[in-house]
Amino acid sequence: MNTIGNTEDNEKDEDNDGIADVLQIDKAHLITRKIQVFMLNTNPEEISNALGSLYTGLLGVIAALKIQFARTIALGATIGECLETPAKKYLTPVLFKMTPREYHNWVTVGVTYITRSIGVSIAWFLQRVISSVHAAIKGGTMFTAAFAEFTGKYGYTTLSEGYFDEIFAVIAAFVGLYLQLSNMFVLPWYLNLLLLPLVIPDALTYFLI
Question: Whole domain around residue 31: which residue ranges?
Answer without folding.
Answer: 6-40
